[in-house]
Structures are given as structure tokens and as C-alpha cells.
Amino acid sequence: xxxxxxxxxxxxxxxxxxxxxxxxxxxxxxxxxxxxxxxxxxxxxxxxxxxxxxxxxxxxxxxxxxxxxxxxxxxxxxxxxxxxxxxxxxxxxxxxxxxxxxxxxxx
Length: 107
What we know:
Elements: E1 6-8, E2 11-19, E3 26-29, E4 35-38, H1 47-60, E5 67-71, E6 77-82, H2 87-101
Parallel strand pairs: 2-4
Antiparallel strand pairs: 1-2, 2-6, 3-4, 5-6
């Protein structure tokens, strides 16, 4: 299984499960095929949401304004929209980012 992407022109939306207070920050694909984002930030006072936006902006080399949480501000499951470059390029970068650091399983 792989993450589902919703493409609207150059915008890419996808769901991610956020795991706050993790030992390290990384994007992976979990056993259900969904993106899982591990963050240092605690889930209090919007810190994990802010860290989520900063993580995607930093790793995709985009301004923070290009990363928006559309749904799930008070949930661990969030709908993220990324703009600022072609949808194909964004999806390729996300897959590479998750693939490099996901759990090693035989194919």
C-alpha cells in the first residue's frame, strides 16, 4: 500500500499521522501504507502543528506559506496541502523522503 495523494492543479493534498514527542524527526510509511511523521514537538498549544508545517517546508525547501494543515489541527491525523511547485515534483520528493528513512522491509 502507498499513501494517497489528491492533486488539484499544482496543489498536492495527503493525510499524515503525526507522532509528537519522538526521539527523532522523520517521515515514514507505516504498515497500513499511510505517511507517519515523527516530531520532537509536544502536542500542546499547537506546537506539533507548527513543527509539522516547518518540517515539510524545510525538507521540501519551500516557504512555510506553501504548507497548510487543511484538517486535523486538534487530531494526530492531519490533511496537509503543499503548493509552490509541480504536483509531480512534490509527490516525488515526498516518496523519496519517506522511502529513504522508512522501516526496512523486504520488497
